[in-house]
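Why run this: before we spend reagent on co-expression, it is cheaper to look at a predicted model of the complex and decide which construct boundaries make sense. The entries below are exactly what would go into the expression plan.
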Amino acid sequence: MNTRSIRKTVAVSAVAILSMGALAACAGDGADSADGTTTLTFWHNGTAEPILSIWQDAVDEYEKANPDITIDVVPIQNEDLETKIPLALSSDSPPDIYFSRGGGQLATQVQSGQVADISEFTSDWLGDLGTATENWAVDGVQYGVPYTSQVVGFWYRTDLFEQAGITGAPTTMTELHDAVDKLKAAGIAPIAVGGKDRWPDAFYYNTFAVRECDEDTLKKGLAEADLSDECFTKAGQDVIDFIATEPFQEGFNGTPAQQGAGSSAGLVANGQAAMELQGTWDKSVMQGLTDTDLDPLLGWFPFPAVEGGDGDPSATLGGGDGFACTQEHAEECADFLEFLSNDDIQTKLVESEVVAIPVKEAAAATISDPVMKSVYDFNTDAAYVTTYFDVALPTGAGSALNDAVANLFAGQGTADSVAEAVKAAK
Amino acid sequence: MSTTTAVVTPDVTTAAGSPSPQGPPRRRSHLRKRLELLLLLGPATVLFVAFVFFPLVAASYYSLFDWNGFGPLTRFVGFDNYAKALGDPLFQGAIGHNLFIVIASLVVQLPLSIALALLLNGKIRGRTGLRLLVFAPYVLSEAVTAVIWLSLLQPNGVVDGLLESVGLGGLVQLWLADQSVVMFTIFAVVTWKYIGFGIILFLAGLQGVPEELREAAQIDGATGWQTTRLIVLPLLGPTIRIWVFLSIIGSLQLFDLVWIMTLGGPAGASTTMASYLIDRGFRRYEFGFGSAVAIILFVICFVFALFYQRFALRRDTQGAITGRVE
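The model came back. Tokens follow.
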């Protein structure tokens, strides 16, 4: 070998070794750096303003108060989180703090062994957040903390209702049907639904079931992932009957829920549809999709009573948003979550109308918008709140439920098919 | 392609096989060659093992378990996942949707891109601009394409408006919401995105058609169509076969466009094998089952690729891929 070829060989080996080194570097998460600071990764779903800034400001403030902690904030679009979280939890380096809706979904994630028991770090202050925290506990072990509760109800455009000659918010199904007819007669799409994303369809089945089933049947059905009770069949039939009245916008099966002006939220925000059955967060989503000030134009009413149903008419479908912690930095994560639930940040969330129902009662005093106040009062007075079925059920069954209801919206399936899909996926 | 092979092959055979009059130097160069090969192939081999071979082995293993992606693999179910997938009407439908895209591509995209390539190969005004225009969509990622078309296709959106403004309002459909229309819509978007690639490929292929042959044909009195049919198209054969291969593999793996535009809906009307796989794996946490679907998809693609290479691509790749390289 002459010198040139030796040099060449060395160079080639160097490249080969370097590329392997680069691969190895990708695998490491480098959470703790040599200078003693700890880096936490924080995944949230607040990709749009104002919540994006609220979380970022909170992190900045927290870092200032805790110089040994650095937090990497990663905002991830809501629908993307569904696939990213399971993937991250089955990897070696999951995020330290991640968005979670609690319930059966969190229970499924706990099976990964990556989600941390934070009971001992939260016991001192968890009581301040009320009963909402129960949804982030599995078998009595606390895995996460909520920052808001939510209820599902109809958001509606008062101006379009007026235009169609509807005098009051519907309180019974008959009145709702009547409102739908009047809106159609006035050439307005009565209800927008984001059928493409499936979970908005499921809100109809879920709320009908909340109206048809008594509390015990509901709880038992969801806990056992067994929806064979007759009242669930009734709910399935209610959905089929309701779709038959054609209350939804054109092409609802292809409409996304919250992305873009053509989404169901966008249609209501821009006055192209009169109502949407959605969670409390919907107002801030809608406001993000239009330049019009929605404050004077939006109203809210709970899902109407269903005649002959066993459910308490004041009961509702709902849930909450929060964060869960993973093992590696469980204590630091819990400390950060305590900071996030302080009165100051809770108040900011309420004032920005991202959150209608804060977990800290003190913050509720700052609710100024009368509509938001009515949502808050409804939740406070509700006989009980049933968690969104897809969150309450184990993930596989929950997803199967959403798919089955979406099939009903596309004209496929029977009153029993939702229960059958849940049973098959259990 | 065959020209490259002709240059490479003798070189390799000499180094490896033919006896050399001098013993030791030949041996050393032989070793060095091996070493160089190893070093040069090293990074690629590491990447291949890490990102293709290992996941494949892992997925085949996972596919034998009822596993939600978390915790240890304890519930061995053998081939149940495979039976479940193949017996699921939704998955059968998904295979059907993939086949639809495969066939529609061959029937519509192939002739269309050859025709456009022939057109753009002629001396027409604004040729460069036109070439750029048809190729532009190919540069976009599938995700961007999907988001653009999602908004264009919404009810009373840009597409509907355009149709109405040219008096074709009767053609307006619920492009993504109607179960009987959605696959055609997706195929149209696939075509919009990939036709430019086909055209560029065929334009390149057309450069390999010797001008003398056309001239000779002309002298013999062949019409333009006869020249195209009897001279140009047969000589375009290798390019067409490569295109068909890429098109079928791409159609079988169709995912991004579907996932963003419809999530496989409504009611499974646009579910493809890949969207079914992601839906089961990541939305329902059925990782064992999802792995089985992934293996089915892999086997379909692999078997197709193998047969296609053996029978259709044989002439084109003789020596290049199937040839003996020691």
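Residues 1-21, 321-326 of chain B have pLDDT under 50 and may be disordered. Chain B has 15 helices and no strands. Bring this page to Monday's planning discussion.
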